[in-house]
Design brief:
The structure holds two protein chains of two kinds. Chain A is of the alpha+beta class. Chain A is built from three helices and five strands. The model of chain A has no long low-confidence stretch (mean pLDDT 86). Chain B is mainly beta. Chain B is built from one helix and four strands. The chains are: A alpha+beta, B mainly beta.
Chain lengths: 143, 97
């Protein structure tokens, strides 16, 4: 009987400790990915030579298609966001108000993007590629 | 509801009409009017979210992947080009690292 009573005391103590600790410090890590990888354009893709058909065959359907008043653009995009939240507080809610705490959070959203601009007759006029997710997360965050 | 890739085999450039495209795939998500044609854009997405709570530590992961089809339709209402990408099945559960 005494042993069982001790176990209950320990469980309650552990729950109270967990509650107090969770009120003191907490960390949250978050990752949000939107869309599939966007590959760099192969060297065979050349302005004024590569056709709309070749781009559609290699990249598939774009995330967005934009009318540029004569020209039009195919936009391929992958977004990757990473975030972190740190919270430090003293759980005095039940004993004393206000409850002192500090919290910091930050997130960085980066893109892999390929844009192909065509003339109205389907000639590739310009293309641009940016592999934003390969850059250093830490350096970009403090940029 | 995801697209059936096999339905695309019924589309032939230079032959399939805009009305046949809408019969096969339904109304497009977006229509873009271009200077000498129209583009019909179709999109479906799959979202998968994962969360793990370890009292002091929380991990959250969201992954969204898409199936997309685009049809270029000329002034005679005939498909001139189309492209597709089917990635919705690649959406996965996981951790944020």
């Amino acid at each position: 009987m005494g042993c069982r009573f001790n176990s209950i005391i320990w469980v309650i103590a552990a729950l109270l400790a967990a509650q107090a600790m969770s009120g003191c410090v907490s960390l949250q890590f978050e990752k949000v990915q939107d869309g599939a990888d966007v590959l760099p354009p192969p060297v065979e893709f050349v302005q004024k030579k590569t056709s709309l058909e070749e781009i559609l065959s290699y990249y598939g359907a774009p995330a967005d298609l934009v009318d540029m008043k004569g020209d039009f653009a195919l936009h391929y995009r992958r977004a990757l966001s990473r975030g972190m939240n740190v919270s430090i507080g003293i759980p005095l809610r039940n004993a004393l108000l206000p409850n002192p705490s500090i919290e910091a959070d930050g997130s960085l959203l980066r893109y892999d993007t390929a844009v192909f601009i065509f003339t109205a007759d389907g000639t590739l006029k310009d293309m641009k590629y940016e592999n934003g997710t390969s850059r250093s997360w830490w350096e970009d965050y403090w940029y | 509801m995801p697209f059936d890739e096999n339905t695309l085999k019924q589309v032939t450039t230079g032959k399939t009409s805009a009305s046949e495209v809408t019969q096969l795939f339904g109304p497009p998500n977006k229509i873009v009017k271009l200077s000498n044609c129209n583009a019909y854009l179709y999109e479906r997405s799959v979202d998968k979210a994962t969360g793990l709570w370890l009292i002091l530590l929380t991990f959250v992961n969201f992954d969204t992947q898409y199936d997309r089809i685009v049809f270029f339709i000329n002034n005679d209402d005939v498909v001139t080009h189309f492209g597709s990408s089917f990635n919705s099945e690649k959406a996965s559960y996981g951790m944020p690292f």
